[in-house]
Amino acid sequence: MAAFDPWDPAFVADPYPAYAELRARGRVLYHEPTDQWLVPHHADVSALLRDRRLGRTYLHRFTHEDFGRTPPPPEHEPFHTLNDHGMLDLEPPDHTRIRRLVAKAFTPRTVERLVPYVRALAGELVSGLVAAGGGDLLTDVAEPLPVAVIAELLGIPESDRAPLRPWSAAICGMYELNPPPEAARRAVSASVEFSGYLRELIAARRKAPGDDLVSALIAAHDEDDDRLTEQEMISTCVLLLNAGHEATVNATVNGWWALFRNPGQLAALRADHTLVPSAVEELLRYDTPLQLFERWVLDDIEIDGTVVPRGAELALLFGSANHDPAVFTDPGRLDLARRDNPHVSFSAGLHYCIGAPLARIELAASMRALLERAPALRPAAEPTRKPNFVIRGLAGLPVTL
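Below the sequence we write its predicted structure tokens.
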């Protein structure tokens, strides 16, 4: 299956022509190098995200051996302890309980209270970029904004925030396809350090609660007096940080690079800032920051006459689904005024991104600040791209005014 090569820099730079080839070939295709079944069509991706015959984990029903899988190496245990206690990699009933408790703390009102802070910080960061006459949109605006917002939400002091992004990048390296041993080593080390930091922060908040999400997570309980364990709180905080800024960072730089390559659409946006909400949705669709989401097959399923057996792994291709012409008119065209836009960039079903409202606020805030304070923003050089495929973005985006 030469069309799908997630380790080829040319494919990573522009996977969308290959996705069109995959969609033409069928609805489910086995990919031997990753031992996955690729699902490229929007209707299938959307349906399978909601299909309870699939799971983000299988350990709620099977052992590794029962499922025909090899347990992870013992030296990876710190990463898996951290990862496997987060909502993203759990299934009911544990997922239901934890998400319910997190939702009690991470409320719409909590997010809404952050709006003035997000807008003020976005304006401050863009003003700094303007004062310098340009810079790197990634490191000067796209990256510090969501990191600071999530840290503010969690109540992490400014003096403690420097390691957050490196820890997150190291942990997220394990979500790539067939990660190398060095990536695993970095992820394990970051998992130990980040967990240790959060354990101390939680202990401090137990003694002196504050007006922050960590304190709210400690206090959260339901009618049965269920509470989050310490490990569940640690894993939730790490998940909110990683998911809460990795996608936003990449969506910001991917989006602006798409705008620069579509000057007519950028001109329309500059002329009419009311397009910002639909522009955010279209840019999330057009160049998807999370290209692939995996599901384990817990019970045999049939897709278009092909039986995918229990124990197999599906790779739901978000980037391909978001460019499916069966759903999106002229999907290869950037259309900031697109009205019918059921993209799957935030997933769907019970694992729909709990932080989607905050991500939309951040993306809109940085876009408005750049439109208002840097109206002549333009690329200063061709950007370099990270080698990653699953969490796909630029290594930097040099800009000038």
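Residues 230-260 form the longest helix (31 residues).
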